[in-house]
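Reader question, answered in our methods column.
A reader sent in the components of a multi-part assembly and asked whether the whole thing could be modeled at once rather than chain by chain. We filled in our standard form and ran it. Here is what they sent:
COMPLEX SIZE: two components
ENTRIES:
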Amino acid sequence: MRTAVVVFPGSNCDRDVRRAVSETLKTPVDMVWHEEREFASEPDLVILPGGFSYGDYLRSGAMAAHSPIIGAVRRHAAAGRRLLGICNGFQVLTESGLLPGALLANTSTTFICRKCWLRVEQTENRFTSGLKKGGIVQYPIAHHEGLYFLPPKELRQLEDDGRVVFRYADPVSGEAGERFAPNGALNGIAGICNEEGNVLGLMPHPERSTVAHLNGGSDGGAFWLSIARDFAERGA
Amino acid sequence: MGFREVGLSESEYKRITELLGREPNALELELVGVMWSEHCSYKSTRPLLRTYPSKGRYVLQGQGENAGVVDMGEGWGFAFKVESHNHPSAVAPFQGAATGVGGIIRDIIAMGARPSVSMDGLFFGDANLCKTRNLAKGIVEGIGAYGNAVGVPVVGGKTFYSPAYNDNPLVNAFSAGFVRLDKMASSQTAKPGDCAVLLGSKTGRDGIAGASFASRELDEDARASKPQIQIGDPFEEKLLIECCLELLDKNMIASMQDMGAAGILSSSSEIAHKSGCGIDIFVEKIPLREADMLSWEIFLSESQERMLLIVEKEKLAPVFATAKHYGLDCAAVGEMTEGKRYRVYRNGALEADLPTSILGSAPELSWPAEEPKDMPERRAIDLSTLASEDPAKELTTMLSCPNGRRKDAIWEQYDSMVQLHTIAGPGEPAAVVEVPKTRRACVLTMEAEPYKCWTDPYCGAAETMTLALRGLWLTGADTLGMTNCLNFASPEQPDKFYELKECVRGLADSCRALDCPVVSGNVSLYNETASGRIYPTPLIVAAGLVIDREKITRSGRTKDGDYIYTVGKIEGSLSSSRYQSRKSGKPLGKTVEPDFEAEKNFRERAIKTARAQAADSGRVIAGGGLATALANEAIASGIGMEITLAPEKSVESLLFSEGGARAIYAVAPEKAAEFERIWQGFPLTKAGRAGGRGFAWKDILNVPLSELEKAFSGEE
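And here is the structure of the entire assembly that came back:
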């Protein structure tokens, strides 16, 4: 499996994602600058990393959604290949219309960085098929705009379609929902996928709980392994 | 323009005419005036700073560069420095703090290092005042907004509240970075014929003469100073980091310097002076935000996110190409020359012509020092007023008071995990960071003891220094060195200068006795307003090296059934402690005298303990004393304790006294014999046992752990 990490000016989790993927999967990771118009390496997985693309000017992710590389990102997704947006990358996906909804400012109106527990709601996609449905995982968050928002009717549809992949949860009781969302996300939504299941966006950072001796925990490794297993079983 | 308007004294002006052999013109006077300001020249403190030990087995680059660099082994260097941004943060909290972070990060880039970690020392006024809350909110948001966007994790820090900082908060920003030794950059390696290149933001009118602003007391109406505040742009800074690191990696840069105080003037004159050459600068080539800027404004502008690169002529083209790739402005604005002259040309006309040496040779000032007349009152203490009727209540107060409680409301606003190398982050007594691609780790501690420095500057500073070092040693780290930020009042009054002098003596003596070189630092004077002055506040960041990250003694890892030990004297001093200061409403009494032999004995055994992994958990006894350390450990570990220690002097002294080489350890019973053997020859007491859900102290107190947790979380 070949991975490409898109680097926008202002991205700051690009190197972290590269480390998490390459240390866990021992597979090649290419860094692709936003001014490119094609992926030279035909990646199986494209990752839009966290950070502050274009300084988050205008709105988080809004300018990156119009970056030169985005055409190639759209074609990659349209071909049914895996596209993953983490944090700012998720914001880029909603701003570019590849995923529905918007990420609004946290209800606290402050940046929040802390460990965060999520319930895996759905394993029918190309990323989480190797995780346990209903299981609790810990991926840290670090964002100022992480309140997932969608108008009521569309939100119902999203839920009915089973496209919520991660929901903020209580690690002890296993309950999930809005009251466990540190940012006020509607229905406690932390991550969603598209109808085909090949585009996933989430606010928490699985790469931050990948290197076990660091302070972000160790649940993220299974996420990368799940993607690799899905790729091995189903191909690109 | 007269010399007084640029902040020079008559004798300084006379010295300038002697050095020049003529009267300076108006521009020259402006330039020298700023470079001879306290902020740029350290003229009041240079004689003191010379007393610091600067050499050590790990030191690669000591004071005199943009930041100090120590050797981490396996080809890695670690550049680190702390710097104040007090005055700007008092006037414009958000921007002042944000640009403080930006400025110190550029110091790290200038060493060729990737900025890897930050810490912040924050000193706020009375926590109950609206004004304090507003200032603190702006400062914390400013630090977060800048550091989070640039992607440098905050791994620790110190927050201290006292009315002494009501009108004059302190913001001390620490940054550090890892650098491959063969990629280290320097500001001393420019050669005649090289080009001076400005990279980053255009030069504007923001922050003009910020250096002289910082060399005065704060005006009552500080708002009039707004034009002297700089505006930060972390997006530009992030691009600047990536661009500079790429250029260094490709060996495109001969020498570099960040632009801080006194902008282009100070960076270009320092690089010429330190490299032993001259420089010609062509003003019309400098990219400007406003076309009509005067030469002196351009030279003194403190516009943020700019670096000065010295580039060999044949490498200019690739440097420009790389800058364009990152969307950064880049312009060749000058040339290094043979003669040691600092020359400014504008459209062909020579506007200033100074010897480069003059800009860096402000005459030193030796202010008189005299012990403050009220020192006997500061030291007078009546211990009987400190008696406690309800020790349990006193303990929960120690945990819930602004200086004792958990600071997650602050540090959760900072990204503490980006860059994937934080092993121990905010909320832990020592920060631990992975050295890239190795099993090594860097340990950092930040300490300040304003109460103790107020009542005894020498002993207070020594206690600050040793406390920071004990924190390193406890984890198992070897001392690499320290950086310090000296926050003081005006040096011009003998009693205030005495505090500074004595504090530096305390730091220097401690560093010399305990093999801790001083590799970098910063001095911030005139921290006073019409309504008062700050406590003497030397802030220390100590750095240490661990060869194997698996052999670190961490905190908050006490296990059920562990023995609890205290090492060192059971009791310290209540004088100028957190307990005493709260009880009396102000710090009173002299703290403990330094005992360097005890510190060395502690060092040896603490490091051995970590390497042998003889303890499950450990914690240095600091603010709030033994009881607070034990309670913090119990809370962090989520496990109760039963303590059986009896008081020597008094219950208050047992529970809350501070100072001296003391720590607590949690040791598994099967390791107890080994642990006791390691600590032979040093005071060691078995204090109790971990277990249960209560925090009980025989004959003194018994509190449910949940109560302590509530107090510590500020829910009380």
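What stands out: The interface with chain A takes residues 141, 144-145, 148-151, 233-236, 238-239, 325-327, 408, 412-425, 434, 549-550 of chain B (CB under 8 Å). Confidence is low (pLDDT under 50) at residues 220-226 of chain B.
Send us your own complexes using the same form.
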